Amino acid sequence: MSTKNSYDLYKNDLRRIGPFRATIQTAFYANNVEHVTQAQSYEMARRQPGVIELDLPMYNPESFGIAANSPALLSCDGSVVGRTARARRVMSRTGEAERKKYLSVLREAVFRLGEKECITSTAIGGLTEEFMLKMRFLIPRRHAKNCFDWLTNFQAFEGGMVERYEKSKVLDEPTILVVVDPEWRHPDYPDGLVIIDDTTSAIAILGLRYFGEMKKGTLTLIWRAAVRQNMVPCHGGIREDTCNGKSRITANFGLSGSGKSALTNRKGGVIIHDDAFVIDLDNDLSMALEPNLFDKTDRGWSEEMTLSYMNSGVVIVDDKKIPLLNDVRNQNGRCIKSRDVLGTVADKTGKPHSVVWLMKDSTLPPIVRLDNTILATAMGATLMTKRTAAENVSPEEMKKLVFEPFANPFRCHALSTDCELFLKLFRSGTACYVFNTGGFWNNSDSDLIDVPKELSLRLQQAIVADEIEFDPLKILPGASVPKTGGMSKIWPDYAKHFDPRRAVKQQEYKDVMFDRFGQRISFLESEMVRNLELRQAMVKSLMLPYENF
Fold first, then answer.
1. Among candidates 366, 355, 359, 371, which has minimal Cα distance to 476?
2. Please, which pLDDT band fits residue 526 given cuts at 50, 70 and 90?
3. Whether residues 415 and 382 fall in one domain
């Protein structure tokens, strides 16, 4: 089997289980906890107050042990319909005094949880026999829909999955434990509290209802385990295309709303996943972690192949209850869709030939190739973007440019570790590009030319087919942009709108660009990348624009 129970893993030193995991895992064995299958969690969710049975069938319910033609379910949260990053506390980064305080809070939370009827279930993180982790989930029965959604987003430990897991590679990792109490309240934590004991793969999600907290909290621990196995943790999408008889694998990294899913899920090719995967550096493998898609409904996707809905309104059409999509009720409406909607899919592929950082920095053109591996790593570590509706932040915060290293706000390991792993990837031959999917400089930083989604899609097709010739970008040594006039067949107006060699003639453009790179340098220095030699090398690569002008 892939993961070990905590006793077997730590039996030579039981103290390594630690008080946080000990508190969380003990909750699973209380008298108030009932183990349920995926089908049972669905039936409980159907009877849950506030849940709506739609007059639409759930896609392929028989594959989950649920009766044919069973209705898709819809649930809605309250005021918060996005992730609350400020609620997260990573214990490996926390001082001793704070750890004691959080441990006391956790013990009391688990005690209160013992006063409620709860359910627990088991799932698998990872879809391939090279990387599978057993996971357990516990939540009050009143919130059975979240249990069903968690099992659907990942993969229930039932049926043929049990046999596959038993045959999978043995990993020295404990079973991941996830305890959730959406009803928890504490005056010191009005935004809720997420306690992450990343060293022992246990998490408590307290006072938060939004399913994305449970999904991403679980992925946090899967990615942390992957890092211990010398794998690159990836919050991104990955696909494989065939061009001129050769396979070309592209990985796209960006926050929700950056174009990550649109680029990954474009027509043709083989889709691995659009949200989460890992790259095994030792075996040149990229592996998906989830069998389905946690998708937005702001584009009004059809109901086809949908398994569950969240935070969407309901309307009556022809006497049938159907979901009101397009984010009419609130921003960040979501659904869980089958990957079948994408066409040809696979659970694993090889190492990426290309990595694409998706940014929203107006001083960068729609495509830049990063030829220097240190610069490629530095730009990933200082990935510049904007917050999205998937996050619980103020409207003012939504407008700001922020850094999210490697597009992964769920990291609990050191930033140095990600930098070292991605540098290994680039030094192994993987190419690196930056796609600006926002707007590019026109006459000022408030006067931008929109980068259409269709252009980003066409650019990705072009790098797969090796259609673009690049020239060095003088202002940023180690980077290249399309040759002047070389884009005429790919996008006729490209040179007119998106040539940085035109923009650099404006002093204001250079001032803004230098300021952005200055922010990147300050961010790396303030983040204190522990690998001093690598940090200095990355900072030096970002200082080249200053030295060049």
1. 371
2. confident
3. yes
